[in-house]
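Deviation from plan, reported transparently: thymidine-5'-diphosphate complex.
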Amino acid sequence: MTVYSGSMDNAAEKSIFKRFVVLEGIDGAGTTTQLGRLRDALTRAGMPHWPTCEPTSRPEGALIRRILGGELPAHPGTVAHLFAADRHEHLYGAGGIVEHLAAGDIVISDRYVLSSLAYQGATCGFELPMKLNGDFPLPGLTLFFDVDPSLSMARLASRSHLEIYEKQSFQEKVADCYEEALETLARAGAEAIRIDASLSPAEVTAQVFRAVGKSLRIDLRP
Ligand code: TYD
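Because the crystal trials were delayed, the predicted structure below was used instead.
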């Protein structure tokens, strides 16, 4: 995994990606809830920020959602390519991650490259998602929401419709692939912090605020 070098010089680019924070974890780990709380805390602290997620709400992401919902069938390799295409547009498209970081925003994203290594790693093997995602810039901080698949699946039990990946046996495989992906991230020198996501939402929020506050040198309060 390398650090992308585009139009900006490498040092400038590396420095803006320090303000890119990603929340990761298996389905039902609570990243979406915590992203909302982080967004609210950054607003209260008066810090310019942009909350976002993958799959995105762009056309590429909308197509992925139809596949995940079971409406459209697709080969796992095709899905891996679609996630990478959605990510490319999310990063470099108008109004995307690079534009926001360059404007001085803190960008907080629910999922990014690690999700592809874990989920598409589980469906296609590690090689394809590594090849498709290896050149994307890495976040300054990744928070990995660590939770047992039996607990995360119990949290999703009240949903009326589950997506194609939301089965415990698959989530167990994804959890193993996340561990491998975290090792890859560590080898690339990117910071990742493990959050105990089995705790109450308030306790998880406290861990998230501590980690993000320390990394960005800001004081985040509940
Ligand atoms: P999720 O983020 O959990 O959103 P929601 O709660 O709205 O369903 O769902 C996105 C799903 O997409 C989740 O199962 C993980 C999967 N995914 C991948 O398989 N690869 C990826 O690269 C990304 C970003 C997500």
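The pocket of thymidine-5'-diphosphate is lined by residues 27, 32, 54-55, 68, 83, 110-111, 115-116, 119-120, 163, 165 (CB under 6 Å). We consider this an acceptable substitute for the interim report.
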